[in-house]
Amino acid sequence: MKDFLKELRKAPLSAQFGMAVVILYVVVAIFAPALAPYGEREVVGSEYEPWSETFLLGTDNLGRDMLSRILYGAQNTIGIAFVTTMLAFFIGGTLGFLASTLGGWVDTVLGRIIDVLMAIPSLIFGLMLLTIFGTSVPTLILVIAVLDSTRVFRLARAVSMNIVVMEFVEAARLRGEGLAWIIRREILPNALAPLVAEFGLRFCVVSLFRSSLSFLGLGIQPPTADWGSMVRDNATLISFGDITPLIPAAAIALLTVGVNFVVDWFLHKSSGLKE
User: What is the pTM of this model?
Assistant: First the structure.
């Protein structure tokens, strides 16, 4: 931990800003029930009440406190995006390593399946799948993870293709080590840096994609707080010069910028380049 703080102090201001944003969002997500003045689903006033001492950001279309909904939205947005990204990396990374390690028909079949999935626009494909299978949270996580795992597969395969031809991997095969051991002990440690960097980028993409689905009505369903659906539900206020619907959108944008700053710093550190 001390080494990390020491490195962070030497990091550029953009990386320090990004890390501060990420930490702030995580703290808000964890302690949302304690920070929110009202409950997530509690109707506390009339619809579209203006900003006041009682309701710092006013109320939404049903009379729920906007500040409380935004705080709870951080919990749902970050939590679901993190789980979805983890699942996408497990699926895509595992298949990518298998394709590069086994080669032959396995690589060909997996590659063609991924090509077909990537040829279909993700948003349209996601809308179709969610319309068919429903919009429950587990279904939402699974659908987005499968669609996003195609990008992870491409990266994992490309990175590991350069590793499987190395002498230490061949030596492990000659020793009789199994496929799982080779992937876990030889390939994964050497492919970790680009995958961790990609994890941050995929997290941003998943957050934006899930928010887009919620805005279109096929993401997280009411009355659960979600930044994408909050923009949709209160969009009519923009016509009256009220910026309240833009606050959840700004929260999504700030999270994306913060994570990208951290990812850029990590990529620079892992590349070994000097300032």
Answer: 0.85
